[in-house]
Amino acid sequence: MKTQRAIDPRDLAKVAVFAALIAVLGLPGAIPVFGGAVPITAQTLGVMLSGAILGPWLGALSVIVFEVLVALGLPLLSGGRGGVSVFVGPSAGYLFGWIAGSFVIGLILWAGGKKPTWLRAFIACLVGGIGVIYAIGIPVQAWVTHIPIPQTALLSLAFIPGDILKAVLAATITMLLWRAYPPAFTAYATRHAARAKKPDDLVDAG
User: Fold this and answer.
1) Residue 206 placed within a domain
2) % of the chain residues with pLDDT over 90
3) What CATH number is given to the structural domain containing 132?
């Protein structure tokens, strides 16, 4: 009989590390946009890396851990922002989009158990780290600020160059780490551990 896989303490440690990484990337501060309502921040880079390196589930969990700490009042967002109020403000949709974005990045990069490539990592970061986040963030921002969605989307074009640069950096860092130490990638290590156990499972079944 198959049993559920126990939570690996090393996975929890990785989640904590990436939650801390996202927080650290907020230390340089933020560039105000739209009168300071929605800032440009380096923290999206951490979100991209969390999904690419940890995979969909743990990547999203690391973002959730970070945002729970923010909700508890820790000033971990760029500009020293924190508290529940940020989750009902103009940038709330982008924060929720970070969770979904990290999940989608991991899903695309590790689909089918294939080894990652720079191009697939870059596409994953574009789709999850930009497309998904904007798809959630723009409507919420429009609703909170009472600005029509088309106009809000047009204003959001200010973020695009920086986000593309972050996608390039995330893909490059991901591949450098992959070449240096593949077991660091949770999705890769989990799949190969499962494959290694298959022969034993067949013996037990027999």
Assistant:
1) no
2) 66
3) 1.10.1760.20
Taking the C-alpha atoms of residue 71 and residue 127, their distance in angstroms, rounded to an integer, is 27
Distances (CA, A) of 32 to 35, 47, 91: 6, 20, 12
For the range 112-117, what are the long-range contacts, defined as Cβ-Cβ under 8 Å and sequence gap of 24 or more? Answer: 113/191, 115/178, 115/188, 116/52, 116/174, 116/175, 116/178, 116/185, 117/175
Tokens representing residue 119 in the block: 């191009």
Q: Count how many Cα atoms sit within 13 Å of the Cα of residue 69 in the half-sphere of its side chain.
A: 16
For 55-94, what is each residue's pLDDT tens digit?
A: 999 999 999 999 999 999 999 998 888 999 999 999 999 9
Helix (H, G, I), strand (E, B) or coil at 55: coil
Residue 95 and residue 67 in contact, taking contact as beta carbons nearer than 8 Å: yes
